[in-house]
Amino acid sequence: MSDAIKHECGIALLRLKKPLSFYKEKYGSAFYGIQKMYLLMEKQHNRGQDGAGLASIKLDVEPGERYISRIRSNQSQPIQDIFAQINQRINEELTAHPEYNDNVDLQKQEIPYIGELFLGHVRYGTFGKNSIESVHPFLRQNNWMHRNLIVAGNFNMTNVKELFDDLVRLGQHPKEMADTVTVMEKIGHFLDDEVTDLYQQCKNEGLSKREASPEIAERLDIARILRRASKNWDGGYAMAGLLGHGDAFVTRDPAGIRPAFYYQDDEIVVVASERPVIQTVFNVPFEAIREITPGHAIIVKKDGRVLDEQIREALPLKACSFERIYFSRGSDAEIYQERKELGKLIMPAVLEAIGNDTDNTVFSYIPNTAETSFYGMVEAAQDFLNQRKISDILANKEVLTAEKLQDILSVKLRTEKVAIKDAKLRTFITEDSSRDDLVAHVYDVTYGVIKPSDNLVIIDDSIVRGTTLKKSIIKMMDRLHPKKIVIVSSAPQIRYPDCYGIDMAKLEGLIAFQATLELLKERNLYHLVDEVYQKSKAQENFPDSEVVNYVKEIYAPFTDQEISDKIAEMLTSSDVNAEVKIIFQTVANLHTACPKNLGDWYFTGDYPTNGGNRVVNRAFMNFYEGKDARAY
Ligand SMILES: O=P(O)(O)OC[C@H]1O[C@H](OP(=O)(O)OP(=O)(O)O)[C@H](O)[C@@H]1O
């Protein structure tokens, strides 16, 4: 089996509803679509830096003219790479044929990528190969216009094997087991089916073959195709597709795990993985942008109609909270406030850890994502300080002088930028093998702002494997000689693997799991590991719906605090002098801060789809059997 491919990805779909001459007149260029695609993709580069791809379709072309273009790159800076190539191609054409310059019809006819429909994708290839074949969009070609299918997705299916077997049962011979291919072939199969049915219909109505073609395109029921294709999909997905003649769709999983936003007016329809991208690129307000309803698809017919159709029965809404904590850009109006709230809500625990001694404490953060929660933490600390000033003033009100008041008011919160990130990479999603070394060299430290009598409170958005802390942050912070280092995680302890698109596939990689194993050993409870293995093994061949997440029993004997303390101990190497404490967010606070994104399986083990329980079961067995394998 070829490696399943991970998809911590971003998508962008754009349909220009007017003729290209309209954009030339209004915005000065018929390349409007390409320019907007560049921005839509670049502003989602946080979602993928290993690969980028773009496909475009020209509507209503004559037979013999090319109408689908696709370009993909797995070079460093892949977004720049593909657009540099596109630009070069366009410029070559324009230089060789000056007559194209002011002629939109000729541009459309002769220059690739000048079309009305676009699909872009940015990709993280977090493990396995990062070959060009793994870069989206994927293409399924056919001589029949409406049988051409182009797909790109931000997704991960837990049951690729089963979906693959389904295809084989249908008589197909898929060329690989990668989930993108499987999903595309699934859609493709029902697309073919639908086309065949419609052709029969047209024939019965007396239409000639040639007359039938545009009729089929018009009547094609995309929702029906998606309903049939996605029936057995178990996973998190925002799946986008284009058909050769010009229909387009984006469908979202029934639990709303992966995000997808859209906007439309009379000039454009646009879909992206993140909302602020659309706001910025098209200068539209927050309120004008909608989320695709979980289990629905937004379908843009070739004639410009936009349909919102239900595809799957909705599941309880479990939008991924990790999008809010880490993955998405913090520029979204809601996400920004949520991250701040995460910082605020954890403050009482921080104050306790420093014995309310804000005077001898420096507050800081680990760049970049945690910067926003730092602002929230600082606001809460400021509130605490103000309360103290009020009490001081009231207590001294009989003897208050201007000087005394000045003394009280001059006390300030001490915030510093202590950690500096040298490389502009997201290390969390860097491939396992090269990560340790990278992390060790990614950060640097600011000297001269910490006194030996100080506590240093430093907030990070999440602690996953703990590499960032162990290999880099704690050691470097210790070089500043603080008395105590308090690491604050704006996310709760990550105890279970993810299987819906965030790369946390192995249990033994998670520091919370490792710490719990240590505790089990110390307390002579390690037999629980054997027991959980027996229970997991016994349900190995159960249908997904009957599998129980027994891994929860591993954590049950311990309080959160005990596990946190063990994590701190394990991440602190013997040469570190400061006392190190780690504080994690509670799951209850997470839900308070991010009320719309209640998906919390990596923290609680409560998976939103049945496949999740199978994955955690498999992940545990892999760990127990010493198999260095991914669980899906
Ligand atoms: O515990 P670990 O397994 O080391 O992973 C957690 C770290 O990874 C992320 O940083 P990243 O460099 O990806 O991104 P950022 O700059 O966007 O915060 C995250 O912000 C944590 O610092």
UniProtKB/TrEMBL annotation:
<keyword id="KW-0315">Glutamine amidotransferase</keyword>
<protein>
    <submittedName>
        <fullName>Amidophosphoribosyltransferase</fullName>
    </submittedName>
</protein>
<dbReference type="InterPro" id="IPR000836">
    <property type="entry name" value="PRTase_dom"/>
</dbReference>
<dbReference type="GO" id="GO:0016757">
    <property type="term" value="F:glycosyltransferase activity"/>
</dbReference>
<keyword id="KW-0328">Glycosyltransferase</keyword>
<feature type="domain" description="Glutamine amidotransferase type-2">
    <location>
        <begin position="9"/>
        <end position="303"/>
    </location>
</feature>
<keyword id="KW-0808">Transferase</keyword>
<dbReference type="InterPro" id="IPR029057">
    <property type="entry name" value="PRTase-like"/>
</dbReference>
<dbReference type="InterPro" id="IPR029055">
    <property type="entry name" value="Ntn_hydrolases_N"/>
</dbReference>
<dbReference type="InterPro" id="IPR017932">
    <property type="entry name" value="GATase_2_dom"/>
</dbReference>
